[in-house]
Input
Amino acid sequence: MIQAGETADLKSFLRELAERLPQHKETLMTIAEKLQQESRQQVKQEGKQEVARKMLAKGMDFSVVQEMIGLTADELKQLH
Output
C-alpha cells in the first residue's frame, strides 16, 4: 500500500504510515484529523445544497431559502 502510494482509504493509509514512521506519527495523525474534518465539512455543505435545491424546486422564496440554509446568494444562484 505504501509503495504504490494509492489507497481508497486515506485514513488507514496514514495510520499505517504513522506506524512505520513513529517519529512522524503526531504530524501524520494531525493531517488525518484535518482531512477528516474537511471531509465532514464537504458533506455538510453538499447536504445544505441538496436541501436548498429541493426547497427552490418546490417554489420557496429565494431569500427565505438563503436565510434558512445559510448559503450565500451566489451559492444559491449556482443551484437554481
